[in-house]
Amino acid sequence: MVQITSQIHSIDGLDHPIPTVGMVSYLIEENPRDYTLIDTCFTCSIPAFESYLSKSDIDIKDINRIVLTHLHPDHVEAANEIRRKTGAKVYSHWIDAIYLSHELQYNGPPDKDAFEHVLKVMGTNIENISKKFGKIIVGPIVIDRLLKDGDTIGHTLQVIHTPGHTPGHISLYDREHRIVIGGDILFNSILNIVGPFIPPPAVTKDWETSIISARRLLNLKFEKLLLAHQSTPILENAHQMIEKAVAVAIAQKNSTIK
Ligand SMILES: [Zn+2]
Q: Which among 25, 30, 112, 178 could disulfide-bond with 222, CB atoms 3.0 to 4.6 Å apart, if both were Cys?
């Protein structure tokens, strides 16, 4: 657990089935003994999650809100169990809530073939993964509060709808500390790719829209970008890094249009 500011802690290195990817959740202290958790992890990582909390002297029952940046299993699989342990309310954008509640079935990406392909590229396979993670099946998650662009959570977090990676993907903006918690708006130095980059089409519903959403963040004033999948947090020059990642993605996109 790393303290980013006096109010923001990152819970680093939670397990992920794909090598190098990892998972980082964030805890925001709204008031003394009143926390908002941004994204969860896989159920098998809950003991690690709880040990991070106890090392930092945080009582899990003081987590009052669980905000899901988007519907992907690595962000939400443990949500029902963490809700049970904390009694917290669960929040997500209203669009992803339709899929999270299983009202509509989500068809990816990523799909099974893409997942298996990435595992192969990273030197592993489904059999190895299931030894630790079991069958990755996310049950219905009831969303207590449906979010929309511009909503405020707690004292400081503004909801920015950043669709593309999933239709209801959100980022969270802390204007006072000039921080964006970006979910999967970018990945940083994972999957053997150096530096921040727009998550590839294999894991992204609408790649073009995800590029536009990253570009939209450039309208905000911030220096720090905290992501769910990162080798290190981006604690300075985040604006320029997003600008560069967007330019690279736009060039890639245009090169495929003949
Ligand atoms: Zn994702």
A: 178
| Average pLDDT score over the chain | 93
Which residue ranges form the domains of the chain, and what is each CATH number?
2-255 (3.60.15.10)
Q: How far is the CA of 223 from the centre of ligand 1 (A)?
A: 23
Query: What is the Å distance from ligand 1's center to 57 Cα?
Result: 29
> Which H/E stretch holds residue 130?
helix 126-133
**β-strand pairing of 179-183 with 187-188:** unpaired
Q: Which residues contact 93 (CB under 8 A, 6 or more apart)?
A: 70, 146, 147, 148, 159, 161, 168, 169, 170
d(CA 36, CA 44): 21
| pLDDT tens-digit map of 23-60 | 999 999 999 999 999 999 999 999 999 999 999 999 99
